[in-house]
Amino acid sequence: MRKLPTIEENDLANPDELTIRDVSIEKATATKITIGTGNAASGEASFAYLEEAIALTQQGEFQGIVTAPIAKSCWKAAGHDFPGQTEVLAHRAGVEKFGMLFVARSPYTKWTLRTLLATTHIPLNRVATTLNPALMTLKLDLLIDCLSKDFGIDNPQIAIAGLNPHSGEQGQLGTEERDWLIPWLEAERGKRPQIQLIGPIPPDTMWVTPGQAWYGDRVENAADAYLALYHDQGLIPVKLMAFDRAINTTIGLPFVRTSPDHGTAFDIAQKGVANASSMKAAIELATELVRQRCR
Questions:
Q1: Whole-prediction pTM value?
Q2: In order of start, what are the domains of the chain with their CATH numbers?
């Protein structure tokens, strides 16, 4: 049996040096929470924590929020029917235009991967009917604004994925590219001469260059950002390269929000084996984005 690592006292932050804002949870709910087990009580508590963070940020007490992972099924069990934290943040902030941008910095080359999803938490069989030129323009607007406001990149190069294998291969493997994605992209190039829009790139080859920039030394060939059309198209490569480093940041909000790009990991609760790299990276990125916005 593998011996669990011990945690030394000097490895932990001193609680007396932290400012902690407590959130009141009803006793009947609190007594039903069990560490390592998700249920309606834990869903109610985590939803309350998020709402408090949003409210205090909107009141001007904070400039950004770093959220921990939540179990969506527990939220639903508690009566909160939201697809995820992103949608709650957007709803409470009163914004309709928002997106999920995943950011990770390579430990090998220091290159930064930025991947925006055009569609997020929807079934795969709804992707083709949800995507359209108006949605793509909305997401592209958000991405361009974010690159300028949060990362200081004013004339970016953005790679855009195709939807079908081989980007449809001229209608032989799907017609979305031919029918609207390519005409939309050509129109956007005409409207945005200062932006280099590349695509639609076949989904199976779009991630070759980012992989080289992440692991090797061909950083100069990589784009400033990548626009994927659906959840797994963007997140399988992100998690393959940067599972313990990737950060989810919600763009389009009036404040900064970041989150580690992994789940709750109930199965390893209290075992001392959790990797905190993504949470640390989320805190660091939130700090960087707040500083960038305050310049």
A1: 0.84
A2: 97-252 (3.40.718.10)
